[in-house]
């Protein structure tokens, strides 16, 4: 509790990448937007974010890539001169309560299997109603 209080009072705020991370989830801001990535990321390596920040020299030593450096590898997501890149829109599903209704069925089934089998059909009905309603819900986005 003392450490928590001292950290709240005097602690520094963590930056965008406090752990020098390797994976793409550290490239988005915090808190993340509801769509996560504004563009679908192009991944060229297993640890693509790390490869965007570092490269190896001829001896295998790891060197940081300078921002805007001319010697940075092409896999850093930079744009080639004269080459136009197609950006796809982000599809977000329409907000719905049907997944919540379907999810509420699982606790009914679990409790029914432990205590009273009469709750199992109630849970199964909730799941089926939720899934069916979700599947039949009309799309509101224009195609």
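^ Assign residues to that structure.
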């Amino acid at each position: 509790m003392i450490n928590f209080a001292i950290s709240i009072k005097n602690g520094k705020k963590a930056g965008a990448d406090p752990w020098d991370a390797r994976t793409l989830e550290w490239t988005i801001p915090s808190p993340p937007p509801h769509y996560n990535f504004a563009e679908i990321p192009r991944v060229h390596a297993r640890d693509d974010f790390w490869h965007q920040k570092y490269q190896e020299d001829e001896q295998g030593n790891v060197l940081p890539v300078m921002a805007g450096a001319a010697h940075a590898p092409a896999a850093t997501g930079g744009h080639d001169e004269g080459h136009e890149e197609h950006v796809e829109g982000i599809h977000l599903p329409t907000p719905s309560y049907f997944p919540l209704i379907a999810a509420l069925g699982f606790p009914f089934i679990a409790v029914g299997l432990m205590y009273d089998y009469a709750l199992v059909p109630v849970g199964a009905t909730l799941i089926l109603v939720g899934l069916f309603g979700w599947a039949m819900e009309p799309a509101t986005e224009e195609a």
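The radius of gyration is 24 Å.
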